[in-house]
Specification:
Strand content: 25-35%
Structural class: alpha/beta
Radius of gyration: 25 Å
Largest sheet: 7 strands, mixed
Order of helices and strands: HHEEHEEHEEEEEEEEHEEEHHHHHEEEH
Distance between the termini: 36 Å
Shape: globular
């Protein structure tokens, strides 16, 4: 946030949507919640929570409501709501295929350009459908290069493993204007008793991925060294993966997902593999460059709607999709390329226009996978309060996980009445949080935000505190 904007907001509390956040004396703290904090051996200073009546703006209950804390993925409620409100639920992203050269009788003597439009959910199935669409339009052979244009987004060069040293984990994948299948590859390792070898299957298998299989077949029982498999990516070549170790046929197949390659290499490798499976021919190379001015549009495909993307982002807490939303906001408001800085400024301007007080918020990348992002529970409650009164409240509320039913709450709060608890969850090292809506037994819905920032959160200390607060709302309001 700019210093000038902070000073402007510091002059007084901005009103949130149609309903004010009423000023009052120190809020009531329910005894069951304080007991849960004590039982989990958490200092009171490490916990913040707020229960807000969205009809009146009255704070029903709260603790440390103005202390900035790390929100983890609960900040996705801000990113997704801002996206819905600024872009509308029908907004979509478009991926284009363009041609440079002569196309005659299905043969392209020239280049095929794949232009990324920022689609956050270009799954492998949709990528295959995109390739098939080109074949159905008569393109059969490509005698030229495949040009990848991913210039719609621009992020500073960064290490995907910088956050926690795990660059190949799905939650660390970095955004890209032509992001395909989250750069994910599913590996399956199985000891084959007939051949006395260990087979490695990859789905998908990009044509430019090299798999070095050094896993030895073990005839022993499935224990100790006979069931250990290691995985390493070449430090100088992200397109090469090496497997080592031993595996016995008595062991179950080893299955795991990893993020590999650069976005452009992954898009190229999977497209060519699918293209050839569909009977297409290609004999060129990968080129990463902006779309040539003389290229002409051949085909395009639209993404899922923003409402669907928001639902997937919140239900399953997708960091990548949230980051794409932030980049898209910046690109739409200030022009391409989309950057995190433009996205943050777009949300800053939007929140000021909406009267949502966000004086202490550093949105960073928009996903919550950040140590820089800070927010108070009162600020996050103001966002949810605005969303509750917004024209797109149905789309937003339906995107939040339902306790005991789906998303990241599928296995939590199962005793809550069906449909009564809609919450975005958040977890990082030393952070646990929930933010959303609870419909009490009396039929009234409340905004509820609870954040715990303490090392004991890594051992589950935050969940009983959140549960105690939610139970209190359900049973007493």
């Amino acid at each position: 946030m700019s210093a000038a904007w902070r000073r402007r907001l510091a002059g007084g509390l901005l009103l949130c949507c149609a309903q004010p956040l009423a000023a009052q004396s120190p809020p009531f703290t329910p005894p069951p919640v304080m007991q849960a904090i004590a039982a989990q051996r958490l200092p009171v200073s490490a916990v913040s929570f707020l229960v807000l009546d969205p009809e009146t703006g009255r704070t029903v209950s709260g603790l440390n409501v103005s202390v900035p804390r790390s929100p983890a993925s609960t900040v996705k409620t801000l990113t997704t709501y801002a996206s819905l409100d600024m872009l509308g639920p029908a907004y979509s992203w478009r991926t284009k295929a363009l041609l440079r050269g002569e196309l005659r009788d299905g043969i392209l003597n020239g280049d095929l350009i794949l232009q990324g439009g920022g689609d956050p959910y270009m799954t492998l199935e949709r990528w295959w459908s995109f390739a098939r669409g080109l074949r159905n339009q008569g393109l059969r052979s490509i005698h030229g290069n495949l040009i990848i244009d991913n210039t719609l987004f621009a992020i500073a060069d960064s290490d995907p493993g910088a956050f926690d040293g795990r660059p190949h984990r799905n939650y660390n994948v970095l955004p890209d204007a032509l992001m395909v299948n989250f750069q994910n590859i599913e590996f399956r390792l199985l000891a084959n008793a007939a051949t006395r070898k260990v087979d490695i299957l990859a789905d998908p298998l990009p044509v430019n991925l090299s798999i070095d299989n050094r896993v030895r077949f073990s005839s022993g029982r499935c224990r100790g060294p006979s069931r250990r498999v290691d995985f390493a990516v070449d430090a100088q070549n992200a397109d090469k993966v090496t497997f080592t170790g031993m595996l016995s046929p008595e062991c179950a197949a080893r299955e795991f997902n990893r993020v590999l390659m650069s976005p452009a290499d992954y898009a190229f490798g999977t497209f060519v593999a699918l293209w050839r499976q569909l009977g297409g021919e290609f004999d060129g190379q990968l080129v990463i460059a902006p779309t040539p001015p003389e290229a002409r549009l051949f085909s395009s495909v639209d993404s899922l709607s923003l409402a669907e993307i928001v639902r997937l982002t919140n239900k399953f807490s997708s960091n990548l999709m949230a980051r794409h939303l932030l980049l898209t906001l910046g690109m739409e408001k200030f022009g391409p390329p989309g950057t995190p800085q433009k996205g943050a400024k777009a949300i800053e301007d939007w929140s000021a226009q909406r009267g949502i007080p966000l004086t202490d918020v550093d949105i960073d990348n928009g996903s919550g996978l950040s140590r820089a992002t800070k927010v108070t529970v009162s600020e996050l409650a103001a966002v949810l309060n605005s969303a509750f009164h917004s024209r797109y409240a149905p789309e937003f509320l339906s995107s939040l996980p339902l306790a005991g039913m789906d998303g990241t709450l599928r296995s939590r709060l199962r005793e809550a009445p069906a449909g009564a608890v809609r919450m975005k969850t958040g977890h990082l090292n030393a952070v646990s949080g929930v933010a959303g809506f609870v419909t009490a037994s009396g039929g009234k819905t409340y905004v509820v935000v609870s954040l715990v920032n303490h090392p004991r959160a890594d051992f589950g200390a935050g969940e009983p505190v959140h549960a105690a607060l939610i139970d209190w709302v359900l049973e007493n309001l």
